């Protein structure tokens, strides 16, 4: 087995996060408890630890300069998002670190919208299919 280059605590880290790749981007996703309200510094610190650990693993397998992003899925807004001025700073800070905070509600709303669109297109396709069969 190839060494990951991680030591002690880094090699025994959390296993409840998910890792995916998409178009050459390495993505770490962590689902936070819905009732937990985080501070920006917690997200930045934890995301940094995840990126460092994954970077070490990827470099040890020969992947140079990997593009890594972290997504935290949360139930509540960050403490700093409660202030409109600070909320802009949160977005800019996270963007500069290639990190996102996504809310459960937004994911659910997006999934519902996508499913509704699928149903509408499916109904149109069914009508078109019926017309074509009659021809």
Describe what is shown at a glance.
The chain is an alpha/beta fold. 51% of the residues lie in helices and 19% in strands. The chain has 4 helices and 4 strands, in the order H-E-E-H-E-H-E-H.
What can you tell me about this protein's structure?
This protein has a four-stranded mixed β-sheet. The chain is flat, with a radius of gyration of 20 Å. It is built from four helices and four strands; from the N terminus they run H-E-E-H-E-H-E-H. The protein has one domain (8-104). Helices cover 51% and strands 19% of the residues. It is α/β, with parallel strands linked by helices and 135 residues long. It has helices at residues 8-11, 40-60, 84-96, 104-134; strands spanning 18-22, 25-31, 67-74, 99-103. The longest helix is centred in the C-terminal third of the chain and has 31 residues, at 104-134.
* First-residue to last-residue Cα separation: 62 Å
Tell me the β content. 15-25%
> Structurally, how many domains make up the residues?
1
Mean pLDDT: 86
Instruction: Please summarize the sheet with the most strands.
Output: 4 strands, mixed
Helix fraction by DSSP (H/I, runs of at least 4): 40-55%
Q: What Rg, in angstroms, do the CA atoms define? A: 20 Å
Instruction: Return the structural class.
Output: alpha/beta
């Amino acid at each position: 087995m190839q060494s990951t280059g991680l030591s002690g605590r880094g090699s025994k880290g959390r296993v409840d996060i998910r890792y995916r790749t998409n178009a050459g981007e390495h993505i770490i996703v962590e689902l936070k408890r819905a009732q937990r309200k985080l501070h920006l510094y917690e997200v930045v610190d934890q995301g940094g630890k995840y990126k460092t650990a994954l970077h070490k693993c990827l470099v040890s397998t020969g992947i140079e300069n990997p593009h890594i992003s972290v997504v935290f899925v949360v139930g509540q807004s960050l403490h700093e998002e409660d202030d409109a001025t600070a909320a802009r700073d949160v977005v800019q800070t996270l963007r500069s670190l290639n990190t996102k905070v996504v809310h459960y509600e937004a994911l659910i709303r997006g999934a519902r919208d996508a499913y509704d669109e699928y149903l509408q297109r499916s109904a149109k396709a069914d009508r078109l299919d019926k017309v074509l069969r009659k021809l």
